Amino acid sequence: MIVFDLDGTLIDTAPDLIGALNMVLAEEGLPPVALADARHLVGHGAKAMIQSGFRQAGADLQTDRLEILFGRFIEVYLGRIAQESAMFDALESTLDLLAAQGARLAVCTNKRSDLSVALLDAMGLLARFVAVIGADLAPAPKPDARHLLAAIEHAGGSPARALMVGDSISDVMAARNAGVPVVVVSFGYTDVPAAELGADALIHHFTELPAIARRLLRCV
């Protein structure tokens, strides 16, 4: 059982997320944020990105207004969910190889399940995963172990034979809390260097994953 995070792990979603953010900011008369400056915020969710955009502009943002803008952000994002997003290099061939080697694949993401399914479907990846579990379908979001355990259960797997693949401290802590080994990708969204997240293994390219997965799951 191999469980993947979504944003920053399977797909580089930052261009569309930041694009949606900038449309919302423009509607509020605020300047856009640069992709490079906001990329690390993607893993913190849309509300954090909106708040950051307002802070950068020196504008006030009340809680009730944040909720309204969050709803608008979701509307805009759904309209462009796969306009500029792209799979990370060698993802499809790696997923095919893992499946051919007998792995069951699932997604465990703090992104809402409906948005996750829409994104994976638009990217032509949905059929590769036996379960897609957003935070709304779990008792609590990552780093809570119950989120990862729910994904494993929905996919028909066992924590004793599962591996988490992610890009952030939330992924690492969810795996640790669930007693599951974890691999971190170096190309995702994180506030600290990926090598410092404390994963069992760090990969720089998806072609490295099958061999590492076999080792961590003791399938060699």
Describe this structure in words.
- The chain has helices at residues 14-27, 35-38, 46-57, 63-79, 91-100, 113-122, 145-154, 169-178, 209-216; strands at 2-4, 11-12, 86-87, 105-109, 131-134, 163-166, 182-185, 201-203.
- The protein is of the alpha/beta class and 220 residues long.
- The protein has two domains: 2-12 and 86-216, Rossmann fold (3-Layer(aba) Sandwich), CATH 3.40.50; 14-79, Orthogonal Bundle (DNA polymerase, domain 1), CATH 1.10.150.
- α1 (14-27) packs across α3 (46-57) and α1 (14-27) packs across α4 (63-79).
- The longest helix is centred in the first third of the chain and has 17 residues, at 63-79.
- The protein is elongated, with a radius of gyration of 17 Å.
The chain-level mean pLDDT equals 95
Report Rg.
17 Å
What's the total helix number?
9
Question: How many strands appear in the DSSP assignment?
Answer: 8
> What separation lies between the terminal Cα atoms?
15 Å
Reading off the top of the CATH hierarchy, the class of the largest domain is best stated as: Alpha Beta
Approximately how much beta-strand content do the residues carry?
5-15%
H/E element sequence = EEHHHHEHEHEHEHEEH
SS-based class: alpha/beta
Point out poorly predicted stretches.
none
Find the CATH superfamily of the largest domain: HAD superfamily/HAD-like
Fraction in helix: 40-55%
Tell me which CATH architecture of the largest domain applies here.
3-Layer(aba) Sandwich
Task: Tell me the overall shape.
Answer: elongated
- The CATH topology of the largest domain is given as Rossmann fold
Largest sheet: 6 strands, parallel
Q: Which strand order do you get reading across the main beta sheet? A: 5-4-1-6-7-8
**What's the number of structural domains?**
2
